[in-house]
Amino acid sequence: MKALVIAGGLPQIELIQQLKQRGYQTVLADGSPQAVARPYADTFYHVDVFDTDAIRQIAEREKVDFLITVCADQVLLVVAEVSQQLGLPCYIDNETAQNVSDKLRMKRIFSEHGVPTTHYVEMHRLDWDRLKALRYPLVVKPVDAYSSKGVRRVDHPEQLQQYYEEAHNISRSGGVIVEEYFEGEEVSVDAFVVNGQAKILAITNSDKVKDRDRFVIFRGRYPAAIPNAVRMQIETVAQQIAEAFQLNNAPLLIQLLHNGKDISVLEFCARTGGNMKYLLIKYSCGVDVIGATIDITTGQAPQLAPVCTTYPIVVNDFVYCRPGVFDHFEGFDTMEQEGLINEFHAVRLPGTEMRGVTSSSDRVAGMNIVAQTVDEYNQKLNKINQNVRVVSREGLDIMRHDLLPTLA
Predict the structure, then answer these.
(1) What per-residue confidence (pLDDT) applies to 323?
(2) Distance (Å, whole) CA 268 – CA 100
(3) pLDDT tens for each residue of 2-35
(4) How far apart are CA 37 and CA 14, in angstroms?
(5) Which of 274, 237, 269 is nearest to 92 (CA)?
(6) What is the pLDDT of residue 212?
């Protein structure tokens, strides 16, 4: 038995390891020869993961039983398309994958089925007349990008031309959404649809860098600080989305904003949460979403029964850097050995040029920290922050320590 894994980031390491435990040979395809998951796979192909023809040829050459990915919405579209072409199993078909990966299609379906979201227009060229119906501030985003690339807040018309062009250039199709800005706290909802019923696994706060025009997440924390009324709306919306997009068995990641009373859905995808989110879910409710994704791909019932864990506070903190060439980490292994860091994972290899903090893909590493109380978490974080460094080739600490603030 053989599986083709598309994309070789941190979550795919866990995916490959679980596939091997189930007796599968693993073939990995990634656009970077330095993909962090490469050493874990049996076979590696350096290929553009968005090149459907190239991925299909690999699947045929390797005679794989199925293609699979986790935590990657745009890659999921390739998995679904190639799987359908070759008659291989996939938990969603190609049409559904397009609906959940393209923000234009998504917004249309939201509007048609009453899913709460902001007013918007869709454009392949900047049309000022169509924007007159929208109120500033606005948000500009490519229809088919990821990791918050090209997503910018626009406060004045003078900014719109620049940010629109950035989004247009990032979008593979050239499509751009311009929507009204909803003032509120961002929440990430991880759920799983089983036989058409959406089951909420974890609701977390997504803390973002305080840049006025960007939306870069530096922390995910459980449990989310939300009123019960908002929690009830989230449960309703999760089911609305499952029905609107005709999802039967699929992971579900919903990103939304709330103001304490109302909610507005930013976007969603039929995938597991990115980067280290599978760890946050594992330690908060005991559910293995990567294993469950393998289950539904191979035609098995997913194991989603929550397990009572001993961690009331579970936080994923992401490590960012100032510009420089990353050389090595210092202190993180000691903090992990002392139990202050629950799990530490690098997502960039030595020699990577760090560009600063412009999108979520600029992370160099991530830490999972668990605690019984907020005070315990803050004590751990303070000691970690004092004892770790991300060192550049010049020997400088380029880590953004300021992006690891304590919790109130």
Answers:
(1) 96
(2) 7
(3) 999 999 999 999 999 999 999 999 999 999 998 9
(4) 9
(5) 269
(6) 60
* CA angle, residues 371, 373, 374, in degrees to nearest 5: 100
The pLDDT of residue 101 is 83
The pTM for the full model equals 0.87
| Residue 257 clears pLDDT 90, i.e. is over it | yes
Average pLDDT over residues 40-47: 98
Counted residue by residue, the chain has a size of 408
- pLDDT band for position 146 (50/70/90)? low
Angle CA(77)–CA(79)–CA(85) in degrees, nearest 5? 100
Sheet with 353-354, strands from edge to edge, namely 353-354, 324-330, 389-392
* Alpha-carbon gap, residue 360 to 383, rounded angstroms: 25
Domains of the chain by start residue, with CATH: 2-90 (3.40.50.20), 119-180 (3.30.1490.20), 185-297 (3.30.470.20), 313-403 (3.30.470.20)
Q: Specify whether the CB–CB gap between 150 and 170 falls below 8 A.
A: yes
Q: What is the CA radius of gyration of the chain?
A: 21
Task: Give CA–CA dist 192/110, Å, rounded.
Answer: 19
CA atoms within 13 A on the CB side of 205: 18
Phi/psi of residue 341, each to 5°? -100, 130
Which whole-number Å values give the CA distances from 115 to 47, 111, 144, 268, in the listed order?
A: 37, 6, 20, 11
Distance, CA of 377 to CA of 84 (rounded, Å): 46
Distance CA 49, CA 62 (A): 16
**Contact by Cβ (8 Å): 292, 251:** yes
Q: Report which of 210, 244, 240, 198 is spatially closest to residue 99, judged by C-alpha positions.
A: 244
Q: What is the structure's pLDDT at 141?
A: 87
